[in-house]
Amino acid sequence: MSAAIILAAVLGGGVLIIARRIFSRGSAAKMLHYPPEMMRGKTIIITGANSGIGKATALELVKLQARVIMACRDRQRAEEAAQEIQLEAGPGQGDVVIKQLDLASLKSVHSFCEEVIKEEPRIDVLINNAGIYQCPYAKTEEGFEMQFGVNHLGHFLLTHLLLDLLKRSAPSRIVVVSSKLYKYGDINFEDLDSAQGYDKAFAYSRSKLANLLFACELAKRLEESGVTVNALTPGIVRTNLGRHVNISLLARPFFNLASWAFFKSPLQGAQTSVFLACSPDVDGVQGKCFANCKEEELLPKATDVEVARKLWDISEVMVGITK
To answer: Would you tell me which of 37, 96, 192, 296 could form a disulfide with 82, CB atoms 3.0–4.6 Å apart?
Structure first.
């Protein structure tokens, strides 16, 4: 039996490699190249910068001599990632600063922002990158469903608290990392906490739809402010984001082969984040969504003005901005 499984894996791997060569020609992620000193003097905050797309984004921006603030929940993992980033970037590149941020705690978000406002004279780019994917049902410190709380509410409050500093730093940018899985989500204002029933896949999609609606409404509020906000969908990327997805032992080798063959690497997945953070091509561009460094057309539900405004108002109440 084990020999048959190994043979199937080897044959399947060969097929996947061939398929990858055939189908990746037209869909390969665009790798960006910018002048090496392009982001010198710029300070950039990246949430969830210790792994996956966030770490790859941090590395690319450090190579462009940016000063990157890694906003991470696990300080030890962040320190390990920072060492790897600095080692790979090499000497004479940008700086890396670690600050603790737990998006599942509004108290932590407040503490983080207070520290940033006190210590940083300017913030040029805020990249709302961190996310949790299809986790078992859990609640944030304040009692919100975890995926909605971390992916949407935590970033909503973070952006609100840093907005004045971003305005003082204008021209500045906000980058919101969403997902194409937003297409399978809906905003049920009667059950944002999944109290009536929890489906982890739907909850993730809803949180990613909320990201896009947040960017839509924020863009309207930032007109003429010198601060731009744009969203992106990175595609399917090989990261640890799917650690809560159960894959059987027999299927795991095939999944690993398929992910290697068809998924983007973290570096490829980070390209649109880097593009929106520093490219002159998006100077002044407001309220758009991008994929593979090109503008992406969204479903109407992701740009519904009334839903976006209502979600904004309710989010303000949930995070304690208004009563």
So the answer is: 96
Structure tokens at 279: 């490219």
First to last CA, the chain: 63
**Residues known to be catalytic:** 204
**Digit-coded pLDDT (tens) for 217-230:** 999 999 999 999 99
Pick from 167, 155, 158, 47: nearest CA to 100: 47
- Give SS3 for 228: strand
pTM for this structure? Answer: 0.87
Counting every residue written for the chain, the total comes to 323
Confidence of residue 262 (pLDDT cuts 50, 70, 90): low
Residue type, 131: G
Residue found under tokens 């929106």: 276
d(C-alpha 152, C-alpha 202), whole Å: 14
Q: Is the Cβ–Cβ distance between 318 and 311 less than 8 Å?
A: no
Tokens representing 239 are 């990261």
Going by DSSP bridges, is the β-strand pair 289-291/294-295 parallel, antiparallel, or unpaired?
antiparallel
Q: What share of the chain is helix, strand, coil (3-state, %, to 5)?
A: 50, 15, 35
